[in-house]
Description:
By secondary structure, the protein is of the alpha/beta class. It is about 55% helix and about 15% strand. Residues about 1-30, about 275-280 and about 785-790 have low confidence and may be disordered. Keywords: Membrane, Transmembrane, Transmembrane helix.
Amino acid sequence: xxxxxxxxxxxxxxxxxxxxxxxxxxxxxxxxxxxxxxxxxxxxxxxxxxxxxxxxxxxxxxxxxxxxxxxxxxxxxxxxxxxxxxxxxxxxxxxxxxxxxxxxxxxxxxxxxxxxxxxxxxxxxxxxxxxxxxxxxxxxxxxxxxxxxxxxxxxxxxxxxxxxxxxxxxxxxxxxxxxxxxxxxxxxxxxxxxxxxxxxxxxxxxxxxxxxxxxxxxxxxxxxxxxxxxxxxxxxxxxxxxxxxxxxxxxxxxxxxxxxxxxxxxxxxxxxxxxxxxxxxxxxxxxxxxxxxxxxxxxxxxxxxxxxxxxxxxxxxxxxxxxxxxxxxxxxxxxxxxxxxxxxxxxxxxxxxxxxxxxxxxxxxxxxxxxxxxxxxxxxxxxxxxxxxxxxxxxxxxxxxxxxxxxxxxxxxxxxxxxxxxxxxxxxxxxxxxxxxxxxxxxxxxxxxxxxxxxxxxxxxxxxxxxxxxxxxxxxxxxxxxxxxxxxxxxxxxxxxxxxxxxxxxxxxxxxxxxxxxxxxxxxxxxxxxxxxxxxxxxxxxxxxxxxxxxxxxxxxxxxxxxxxxxxxxxxxxxxxxxxxxxxxxxxxxxxxxxxxxxxxxxxxxxxxxxxxxxxxxxxxxxxxxxxxxxxxxxxxxxxxxxxxxxxxxxxxxxxxxxxxxxxxxxxxxxxxxxxxxxxxxxxxxxxxxxxxxxxxxxxxxxxxxxxxxxxxxxxxxxxxxxxxxxxxxxxxxxxxxxxxxxxxxxxxxxxxxxxxxxxxxxxxxxxxxxxxxxxxxxxxxxxxxxxxxxx
Length: 792
């Protein structure tokens, strides 16, 4: 109906039917441009019908007005109408050949409005020309044609309100004028009918145009929302391991195929399984989802494993079938998740639940499960396996000296050697720290277990390579048999541990089988531990004193306090038996505090020239109680601080020498004297002798015992005495038992002696008699004076 230039626009996002994603992007037009495009498209679609109506109406009018048919005015009008029809048909033809009009310029709509006005005015002029000169029947036909043209124009141009007005107004005005000037009764009736009909058509056409515009805006909003949702989905899928997939009814993927390709590492175009339940022959197993998809039923969180040269991957798929309004199956839609990382983590957790993370051996939990299984159903014919408990010898020394990384390296090498020794069906477990256990199904009897333990000890004979150095590490093994040495897991493990303890007590680097006597010894030990904790409260501990003698004058300078335990059942328990037990159980701090208080209390009643030496434990320093113990003992007894001498051993400096030296300086500030006991048998580092000025060195009895026959021991003693002179330290020789030893030590200028030659350790009640004898033996007095003193 109308021509003019219109520009074509393309939508900003066009969807590819095969992948449901944007195919390309074009510049977006304004909303008004898109509305004008729709309006012009609506008008152009009705152009052929409208032009056909124009031609038919023209023929009817010219036929009814036969007298005017070939008048010049009629000919001119007909030619003009023909031109309008040809231009409109041409515009419609161009519209048909081109892509759909997506948008149009305001110039195109202005041209359409002008074209509508021209056509309406041309028909208004025809009505005004032909109606007055026609007879009654012809007038009625022309009036009907006028109203029909108004109705047809309203229908065709309702999409563009301005074009509708431009067409109807001149046609309506021409018709009203033509009916008005005729002044016939029928003319007035037709005029009233025309007025009412035009009003109705105009209002209906405007409403139709508004509805069209609202529909367009609704479609536009839906398109924008769909675009936003699509963009959000794309961002979501790119940023997470989840994505949406969809297939057609034939199983072809229409969405999500690129993500499947990324996971699978190869093309995947078909999701519904073929007869061999694989992805289009790609060898990917679809059996977990095959049956539901073939039956067109939903499935949820179904896991599919994907093998690849880079390692297995896993995806979890959820999907449900899609059916159209008619109930026809249209495909599947769902969500897929790449759960490879999660699956690896779960498998790692499951692995670590039963394996040691450092060595890869079975851990304590898995080992306990195996022991529970063995003990739950013991075979009637006897043990079918043996349990070997292993503990490394000297591991702590290497770990402390070289660091935990080196210690971990050593543990891994130990695990590797043990795995090479045992049979495939045996379990090697790391219980914790440097403790290992073997459940040896291949060694169910004593002979085979003996052979296995011997092989284990032999494998430790070869040094371990720890970077730039070699480390010699031994191993102690305790062996027990399930059922025979324990009917339940607790008894079995305890007895194997007892056998291990026995192996360590036997000198380490050996193995022991469990024996029932070990359990009795353990019970005795536990009872002794309990009694030892109560010994102080029950007043079962007593102090003996052994004199320390000046090497030149043979005068007693003081006494060393030695603790003894008078057990109500076992009698006197020697220190070398219960002191290590006290150190292991933590009771040594309480015993050490009691010894300090009791020794200071007794010494306060002696002469002011006599000192008391007390051995203090490493634990008293480690737990920070030594200062409080000494201060309390001095305060409660009233003993002068310079009469108290604390004897410490070289092992005190192993863990934290700087902290120990600090505490020793604090003790020295009180006036207490410090002696280094058992010098030469322990840590033997001279650096702490420079950092802290000791008052005395005490030579261990092992050197004194060997002084007569051992040239090396003789040389060591000379060196220690020379060191004492250089450092201005008093040197005491322990364990002096005969005159020959005294003679040698005197020639070496040893300062003080202590040993059985002078006196065995004695109780506090016997010290008075000893001091009296000592005084009489050393003082230049008469026998009568001594007798008088004794009587006094």
